[in-house]
Amino acid sequence: MLIADFFEKLGEYALLMKKVFTKPQKWNVFFKQYISEISKLGVDSIWIVIIISFFIGAVIVVQIALNIDSPIMPRYTVGYVSREIIILEFSSSIMSLILAGKVGSNIASEIGTMRVTEQIDALEIMGVNSANYLILPKITALMSFVPVLVVLSMFFGIVGGFAVCVFTNVVAVSDFEYGIQMFFKQFYIWYAIFKTIIFGFIISSVAAYYGYFARGGSLDVGRASTNAVVLSSVLILVFDLLITQLMMG
User: Fold this and answer.
1) Is 212 within the bounds of a domain?
2) Burial 94-118 (b: 16+ CB within 10 A, else e)
3) What sign does the dihedral 227-49-59-71 (CA atoms) show?
4) Residue 179 lies in a domain
5) 227 CB contacts (<8 Å, ≥6 apart)?
6) pLDDT band for position 189 (50/70/90)?
7) Measured between alpha carbons, how far is 52 from 195 in angstroms, rounded to an integer?
8) What is the tally of structural domains in the chain?
């Protein structure tokens, strides 16, 4: 039963994406919605990304400084390891998990509410491709704006680490700066951005799927929103492993 249910949902998802990725009926309407979704899903997430990245960056530096306290290990290692953690995993994967909770639940609950209040049925009756009209702007908006969020996360994560060095002297600022610049590979930035674009698609499409096929009342919308966040988080972790193995292996 579980296998049959899995393939049924996978088929529904594939057919939904086929309806989503068609030519918009009116490009001017699509672009208006696209800009609106960038503001709602992307711009409104900037502050939570900045705040979390700043403090997590500071915590990472403190933890590494306290745990790498050996005369054999040079102190600039703290800056180097902190940079690698922030760029390679935190700002891409962990931040995407946080966005899955914020953005994914927003998309699922919005589309789910439209489904249970029969607004989607009304669009279908008017001859509108409801999947394309509602979901495509959300997917394209999140995928195009998520690189901005990941770059901001990297920057403020490192700023948070620098700030904790300045105010607590857990590591000398000069050592931290040297470690940040040491053995830097530009490829890691592009790798992180590529990952988050894939994660952006996963978050938006999975959340849209659960919202679009929500049935019943408000409780079912809440259940769809929860399921969307859980499955998005699992898929992000799975694809993080696959992409890392393919690109870094």
Assistant:
1) yes
2) bbbbbbbbebbbbbbbbbbbbbbee
3) positive
4) yes
5) 108, 210
6) very high
7) 19
8) 1
- What is the domain range of residue 117? 26-248
Output DSSP code: residue 69: -
CA dihedral 211, 216, 218, 224 (to 10 degrees): -30
Q: How many CB atoms lie within 10 A of CB 183?
A: 8
- Per-residue pLDDT, averaged over 133-144, amounts to 94
- 189: tokens are 């930035």
Q: Which regions of 87-215 does DSSP assign to beta strands (E)?
A: none
The lowest-confidence range among 73-77, 90-94, 239-243 is 73-77
pTM, 2 dp: 0.92
pLDDT at 249: 67
Average pLDDT, the chain: 91
